[in-house]
Amino acid sequence: MKNKRSSLLLLILLLVVSMFLAACAGGGDDSASDSDSGKDDGNQGEEGTTDGGGEGGDLILAVLSDASSLDPAGSNDVPSSNIQANIFETLVNRNDDNEIEPGLATEWNAIDDTTWEFKLQEGVTFHDGEAFTADAVKKSLDRVRDPEIASPRFFLFEMIESVDVVDDYTVQIKTAYPFAPLLAHLSHNGGSIISPKSIDEDYAAMENGEEPGSVISENPVGTGYFKFESWNPGSEIKLTKNEDYWNEPAKVDSVTFKVVPEAATRVAELETGNAHIIDPVQPNEVQQINDSGNGTVHQKPSSSLSYIGFNTEKEPFNDVRVRQAISMLVNKDDIISGVYEGFGIPAKGPLAPGIFGYNEDAKPLEYNVEEAKKLLEEAGYADGFSTTIWTNDNPQRVDAAVLLQQELKAVGIDVQIEQMEFGTYLDQTAAGEHDMFILGWSNPTGDADYGMYALFHSSQKGDPGNRSFYENPEVDKLLDEGRQETDPDARTEIYNKVQEHLIEDAPMVYIHHQEYLTGLANGVEGFDIDTSGIYQLKNVTLSE
């Protein structure tokens, strides 16, 4: 009997060890080392499903670009947001159907046209042990609006006049005017709630001459289901599971974001088991991955826009005829089929279908070489001119730049392509040092205000989003009206007019609304990516 018991115990032990090894499988290095921009819905199951998956393990992502800042008020790019969204939480969340759901706020109501009251979740603590209360909400939202912080996300909350603490778990937000998409804006991770202690330490560092966000970006402290562990800039960022998370915890033990700029290397990382998720997958790699037996490509329609921008303050792009001409020389179908392998749809203007305010009747500038030549002749550039186009290290953008270079050469426009690292690219386009450039804009709020205010309002030139340095008083006026109008039909009418102006003025060439393409290794379950390109990692599980 004793021998049978020993054999049984040995068998159980072997099974436990086997299950543990399976949960941790993946082939990646899980040691702590420290740490765009182009992204898709395969048959990986609904978000949150765990069929075939187990909890635990170290999730490894190979991504194109590093974060520029881990401070939610310190950046407005997708690579940074993808890290921040796992560490911090917001008062409310937005799902893919543009519905607002509870986050750190359990309920909310409009007291009047300019006052909203939020009831807060109790029993929540920050990663540093600080209690989450209404004071934390006030400090965070006051900070992102503080001129000394100079947040590129200020535009999201500039309509807020005051944040008032009613009691420990009740807060009121008052706006200077009725602002219809306030809840959508509060779902943006620019409205992340940061540890009050961390905020105090950051302000203290500023008094000692440090840059805003120096403390928060180096050690971000939120209430999210993952905690910050380390960042080796240019290499990797590591997060670990928040064991004390107030809600349903994450499934995996840690997440490592490895910066892998080369597309072929990312695919190799997936196929050799050194990464569980790779992003982005290049369109011409989709079939290879799906046929490899090692993984599949997750496809997701996006609310994002890919575009070619002009610096409208520089000659010759300060002439609308030149901008219109180049818009007519861009064959969007060729770019979508040749560069993106058909993944995505042509853009009429800046907004994607499904975004509130999208103008279905908008008439885009069509591909027309002869009309483009006439416009260039009228503008005094019948013989063309020389210019540059900038792009970051996204291969699709580089390929699109080459196609544009070839198209423009046919009409005498000589284009030099300059490629640079993503962070440098953002800094220099924000400073207005470019002629033309290729970039994208996601829409995490699902509203026309976000899709156009930051990109085209003259108050948003540079880092906030208006890298075209575009200015039109009528567009400014309409965008301001759209922010303050509460009637949905009237707002739609306003934004329809804005889109007509933007197509006519052509501050950018609106290329397409892409599909996000993300490679998933076999055994990855529960992954999703939202329509603005933010990974949903809470419910991811790993198995053999």
TrEMBL record:
Residues 1-25 form the signal peptide. Residues 99-462 form the Solute-binding protein family domain. GO terms for molecular function: peptide transmembrane transporter activity. The keyword Signal applies. Residues 29-56 are annotated as: Disordered. This is Peptide/nickel transport system substrate-binding protein. Keywords: Signal, Transport. Belongs to the bacterial solute-binding protein 5 family. One of its GO terms (cellular component) is periplasmic space. Pfam families: SBP_bac_5. SUPFAM superfamilies: Periplasmic binding protein-like II. GO terms for biological process: peptide transport. It comes from the Bacteria.
